[in-house]
Design goal:
By secondary structure, this protein is of the alpha+beta class. Helices cover about 20% and strands about 30% of the residues. It is built from 2 helices and 6 strands; from the N terminus they run αββββαββ.
Length: about 150
């Protein structure tokens, strides 16, 4: 089976991050203002616990290391992910993002992939919009790898 679709690298990365950071509070979901798509983890006081949302893009053919004798599924593909490091305060979100960077960059998710590289990111504060979703601080890290190498 080919790894060009990125599934093996996605699953390995999610398991690796969950086993090593934020007490396993890692979810595959999109970042949004209302916290829809997952239950925002909180402590007993209602404050947001540190957690990470991973949102994957579909793989795209790589322009490097292509071979004329191989079919498209056997060619290298780029896999991009966004990793939203979220906490109840900005300093904790920043520390989670730094720990994620140290964990992922230079790590290979499978034997048929290259190591992750960092691709930038951003910071933002998501204000409380209702009584059911608390204020959250986000430090986003974008990262990519090449699969099917």
């Amino acid at each position: 089976m080919t790894e060009a679709n990125g599934l093996a690298a996605m699953e390995a990365t999610e398991a690796y991050v969950a086993a090593n950071l934020v007490g396993g509070r890692v979810f595959e979901a999109s970042l949004d203002d209302e916290g829809v798509g997952y239950d925002v983890p909180r402590d007993d006081s209602g404050r947001v616990l540190p957690h990470i949302l991973i949102d994957w893009l579909a793989t795209t053919p790589s322009r490097n290391d292509r071979s004329l004798g191989l079919g498209e599924q056997e060619q290298p593909h780029s896999l991009f992910g966004s990793f939203a490091c979220i906490a109840g305060d900005a300093k904790t979100a920043r520390k989670v993002r730094a720990a994620l960077f140290d964990l992922l960059v230079d790590w290979k998710p499978t034997s048929k992939s290259n190591a992750f590289t960092a691709q930038g990111g951003f910071r933002e504060r998501i204000e409380r919009k209702s009584s059911t979703v608390p204020e959250r601080f986000v430090f986003m890290q974008y990262a990519s790898t090449t699969v099917q190498v």
